[in-house]
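Fresh eyes needed here. Have a critical look at this protein's tokenised backbone.
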Amino acid sequence: MKESTSREKVLKAIRKALIHKSEADFSAADSKAEIYTAPPEGESLEILFAKNFSALTGNFIFCEKKEDFTKSLAHIIEERNWDNIYCLNPPLQDLLKQGGIAYNSAQSEILKADIGITTCECLVARTGSIMVSSRLNAGRRLPVYSNVHITVAYTSQLVYNIGDGYKLIQQKYGEAFPSQVTVITGPSQTADIEKTLVKGAHGPKELFLFLIDDGTA
């Protein structure tokens, strides 16, 4: 019978692959081998993260102290005429209040959030990624719902690779490990629709990272 859809062709290919399994021998493979190279010698994690994050079109802002965060954010808000800023994290809310920055924290209005401000679990320098989890105040929703996602992190949260990030989260939560851990690597974008690049198709169009120096990196 003639295949009428692309789906049928794909399913047929999958069935064929399952029946005719690969004869490659992986018995000698070392499953415990270190797959990541060591950090570049002489380059700090802050600089490495900033390079890789910026290369992914992320907006990186370094802050020597907490007060610099609110000053820089206030300037960007005025420059871009931002509204509907949403924040659920109490320590961040305190910083926003100190800087005179208005925000919304009503759970019922989270879908209206244009700008979402969150913390994170850690920053992965090797890939310029941000790791967040369902255990954070913002949960699963805010990093996805807002058009612009702003992450506030500290230099003490920098790790070299994703494996180090998971270890850090494991140490933090122990047996109460989060039900979801998400690795954010650059703003959301896809070219699935007619091969046209679309930003913000399944998440924020822009990503900002404010890195505050807490003297422990």
Notes: Residues 147 and 204 are 4 Å apart (CA to CA).
